[in-house]
Specification:
Number of domains: 2
Structural class: mainly alpha
Order of helices and strands: HHHHHHHHHH
CATH superfamily of the largest domain: lambda repressor-like DNA-binding domains
CATH class of the largest domain: Mainly Alpha
GO molecular function: DNA binding
InterPro entries: Lambda_DNA-bd_dom_sf (IPR010982)
Distance between the termini: 57 Å
Number of helices: 10
Strand content: under 5%
Largest sheet: none
């Protein structure tokens, strides 16, 4: 058996990746045929999936998306609390009004939160955890809100400047 050093002497990193990590055909026609067979296989598997299984898959996908976003260092304005709430409702295949009824919240309030016209109340976050049977814990939703708040604080100089008039004395030094 060859050691990694022996392989590195003989091949470039690109050759190793192509030959050892991602083996596959170089012929475009063979590749397209293989992909078509794979798509056909996935379609067959999807056709026998139950509705419950599809819903679970979609919710898992949403949860992973939320976790990836929360663990990323970057802020994306499109991924706000309302976006994920809307996706949660959509993947459950429910109407907003129906979902609002299920968590005993006014449909108008739900709509305002989804469309970023209003911040969600704590009760909504806790009800989301309960509704999802703890699959989407409250802490995850709070972390989303916190990420949004951090971005606002860092980029909304008007907010800080408007509070400046209330501070009569400040430290003479900074570190």
């Amino acid at each position: 058996m060859k050691s990694l050093k022996d392989i590195e002497k003989k091949y470039t990193p690109e050759e190793m990746a192509e030959g050892l990590v991602f083996p596959g055909t170089q012929n475009p026609k063979e590749r397209e045929t293989a992909l078509a067979e794979f798509r056909k296989f996935r379609k067959k598997i999807a056709s026998v999936q139950s509705e419950k299984s599809k819903t679970i898959s979609q919710l898992l996908q949403l949860k992973f998306l939320m976790e990836d976003y929360l663990n990323a260092d970057t802020f994306n304005e499109d991924f706000h609390f309302g976006y994920f709430l809307k996706e949660y409702i959509r993947r459950l295949e429910k109407k907003n009004k129906e979902f609002a009824h299920e968590i005993d919240i006014d449909p108008t309030e739900l709509s305002q939160v989804i469309n970023k016209h209003r911040k969600p109340a704590e009760k909504l976050v806790f009800r989301l955890e309960i509704h999802s049977n703890k699959n989407f814990p409250a802490i995850m939703w709070f972390r989303l809100l916190e990420k949004e708040r951090m971005y606002e604080v860092l980029h909304d100089r008007d907010l800080i400047n408007s509070e400046r008039k209330y501070v009569t004395q400040k430290l003479e030094f900074s570190f």
